């Protein structure tokens, strides 16, 4: 079997350029398997350990959708919700979106607890394309009316096993109930 290259995947040119600049040539196995399905709009349950490239596996198809189907921001809304168990992971995922999307125009914000909420509220005010969030603070902001999840098109649960281990199951259920049924779901 010939090895898949990023160039053979139908990802938009600005994404291909960002990957080339980072010296990414071949997708990892999880990327090669999931990116073509996600580009077709399918849901996905992916199992892969940390360090296998799962962040690019979900972020590249989402960035591609921003390029192929750009939409204006809506106040206090987000097109993409990525839930992560920890602040550290949220920051890593946010950085990956910035890196892989360095040649695209999109806005992202991070939401996690243990810090003041005002900068997060401000970042959400005009709306974002990607919100990377830990469950507890996310629900606080929703309950206070600073965030509306009714426009979510892409829903990613990252490290869902760890999230459940950490006791976030009820928070995750509440969040799922707030996002539209018609969405693309990506669970890792
Ligand atoms: P992740 O599993 O998403 O945390 O990614 C682990 C590391 O692999 C990160 O430092 C990525 O920058 C890097 N990486 C992900 N995909 C590729 C790829 N296709 N080629 C080279 N490096 C990659």
Polypeptide structure, described:
By secondary structure, the protein is α/β, with parallel strands linked by helices. The protein is built from 8 helices and 6 strands. The chain has helices at residues 13-21, 29-39, 54-68, 87-100, 118-125, 135-143, 160-165, 169-178, and strands spanning 44-45, 78-83, 108-111, 128-133, 154-157, 184-187. The chain has a 6-stranded parallel beta sheet with strand order 1-6-5-2-4-3, sandwiched between helices. Strand 3, helix 5 and strand 4 form a beta-alpha-beta unit. Helix 2 (29-39) packs parallel to helix 3 (54-68). The two termini are 26 Å apart. The structure holds adenosine monophosphate. Adenosine monophosphate is lined by residues 24, 27-28, 31, 50-56.
Set out the fold topology.
Blueprint: H1 13-21, H2 29-39, E1 44-45, H3 54-68, E2 78-83, H4 87-100, E3 108-111, H5 118-125, E4 128-133, H6 135-143, E5 154-157, H7 160-165, H8 169-178, E6 184-187
Parallel strand pairs: 1-6, 2-4, 2-5, 3-4, 5-6
Helix pairs in contact: 2-3, 3-4, 6-8
Bound molecules: adenosine monophosphate.
Adenosine monophosphate binds at residues 24, 27-28, 31, 50-56.
Rg on CA atoms, Å? 16 Å
The small-molecule ligands in this entry are:
adenosine monophosphate
Q: How do the strands of the widest beta sheet line up side by side?
A: 1-6-5-2-4-3
Number of strands: 6
* Low-confidence sequence ranges: none
Mean pLDDT: 96
The helix-and-strand class reads: alpha/beta
Residues in helix, % = 40-55%
What characteristic shape results from the CA principal axes?
globular
> Whole-Å distance between the termini?
26 Å
Largest sheet: 6 strands, parallel
Strand content bin: 5-15%
